[in-house]
Design goal:
Largest sheet: 7 strands, mixed
Low-confidence stretches: 297-301
Number of domains: 1
Strand content: 15-25%
Order of helices and strands: HHHHHEHEHEHEHEEEHEEH
Mean pLDDT: 92
Distance between the termini: 26 Å
Structural class: alpha/beta
Strand order of the largest sheet: 1-9-8-2-5-3-4
Number of helices: 11
């Protein structure tokens, strides 16, 4: 617990320092942190590049993968700094720095009274996405995995719920998720991590089999809720500064015909394809650290 507390103090010190800086200087710091991590993160850097080459296949060169990896690291550093400043976020900041397109899809579906799922991924600055949507009048009830550090978990949860919405722990979450939708609320799901054999179904992701959680498909087949892909990306790359664009796509078609398990697999495939469809044109925005296709083998001591 002492190590956890020291890590929390280090985090709060970093947040304090970042908030002393002007916005432009803070962003430059984030880019520098990302660039340094790319240079020093030898094994991780190679894993990221390998994942990129695995996803894009023979047309992706090692040099191209490393270039995407370098941009990914810098994006991550910038997002870290932005999240450190999130307590200063307000509606004026969002109006100035975040452009929204497709909000009419959410408005139309919410009028039906069956709730809406915002389907997304660890893409762009997903924490800013949650906060910006809340400040825009769309508070999200986000399904998350609690952090192992209890001090950090409590702090991050306060930040995530600062502007509205709630946090739903992944463990035993189904009842709470259905409750949100039955109250015509907005449920937020990041569906881009590998699921266990028990909880997942195998679908295609970048042409490779990837086990993905089947819970969302099962829930929306019961509630009739719309599933709207929602993503945030940095406008103009890192040179665009703190400008972001939030895109809401039209609701995905949900099938409920035929065998239940086959319908769940088909719907989960549609969710996964929607995520892939956004990663492909903006690969440096996705969190390539995920072991998306297979579990990493534990090192032998």
């Amino acid at each position: 617990m002492r190590v956890d507390f020291l890590a929390y103090i280090a985090c709060r010190t970093f947040v304090w320092f970042v908030n002393l800086l002007p916005l432009s200087a803070a962003l430059r710091l984030g880019n520098a942190i990302g660039g340094a991590a790319f240079r020093l993160h030898g094994a991780r850097r190679r894993m990221v590049a390998d994942n990129i080459m695995k996803a894009f296949g023979p047309q992706m060169t090692s040099a191209g993968a490393l270039a995407i990896a370098a941009s990914f690291y810098r994006n991550l550093g910038a997002s870290l700094v932005e999240f450190a400043r999130i307590e200063r976020l307000d509606r004026a900041y969002v109006d100035l720095n975040v452009t929204f397109e497709g909000l009419e899809h959410a408005d139309r579906e919410l009028k039906k009274g069956k709730g809406v799922v915002f389907l997304s991924a660890h893409f762009g600055n997903w924490e800013l996405l949650n906060a910006s949507l809340a400040l825009k009048g769309y508070p999200v009830n986000a399904v998350v995995r609690p952090l192992d550090n209890p001090y950090m978990d409590d702090y991050i949860e306060r930040l995530r719920t600062r502007f509205g919405g709630s946090v739903i722990g992944k463990k035993n979450a189904v009842r709470k998720m259905m409750g949100v939708l039955n109250r015509n609320g907005i449920l937020g799901i990041l569906l881009d991590q590998r699921a266990s054999r028990r909880d997942g179904v195998e679908v295609d992701f970048f042409g490779l089999p990837a086990r993905t959680s089947k819970g969302l498909a099962a829930i929306v087949m019961k509630t009739g809720s719309a599933v709207i892909p929602v993503f945030i990306r940095r406008e103009g790359g890192l040179r665009g500064g703190l400008k972001h664009r939030v895109t809401l796509r039209p609701p995905l078609e949900i099938t409920s015909t035929g065998l239940r398990e086959e319908a769940i697999r088909e719907n989960t495939q549609r969710f996964t394809s929607a995520i892939e469809g956004f990663i492909r044109p903006y690969p440096s925005e996705w969190f390539w650290f995920h072991s998306r296709w297979e579990r990493r083998r534990k090192r032998q001591s």
